[in-house]
Amino acid sequence: xxxxxxxxxxxxxxxxxxxxxxxxxxxxxxxxxxxxxxxxxxxxxxxxxxxxxxxxxxxxxxxxxxxxxxxxxxxxxxxxxxxxxxxxxxxxxxxxxxxxxxxxxxxxxxxxxxxxxxxxxxxxxxxxxxxxxx
Length: 134
Ligand code: HEC
Known about the structure:
This protein is an all-alpha fold. It has five helices and no strands. It has helices at residues 2-27, 48-61, 66-75, 90-99, 114-124. It is globular. Residues 56-57, 59-61, 66-67, 70-71, 74-75, 82, 88, 93, 96-97, 101-105, 107, 112, 120 line the site of heme C.
């Protein structure tokens, strides 16, 4: 008895659910697509260096990333986020990325090519004062 009922109940419930979902949708106008909160620039406007930073580094170096937290502990809170720094040297960035630093693993040329690393370093030093840029 319960077996037969069980077999019947599931499709009936599924139909009921489908009908409810359909009728709920039918009465409403198509929901207007709310614009997503724009916190990041769209990919198209990013430089290659910024795009690479977001794919290869931001997992640790985003606002609340582990790297950001560790650097803030060592150098102070206004130094935590690499993307906001204006005191990084391209040679220093390259040395850290290739050699690693404490919990930051070294990146091989397979992980990030020399050309890509140069683009990341260029982007991370974009706000440097002119004298410190090179
Ligand atoms: C797996 C996590 C992780 C990834 C991925 C990562 N880092 Fe790091 N990075 C760290 C950590 C952790 C530190 C801080 C080490 C410390 O100070 O204790 C750090 C430190 C640094 C520093 C030193 C900053 C300073 O002022 O001394 C630079 C520069 C840096 N990372 C660049 C990069 C770049 C560029 C990438 C991407 C190519 C990258 N990192 C990817 C974890 C990471």
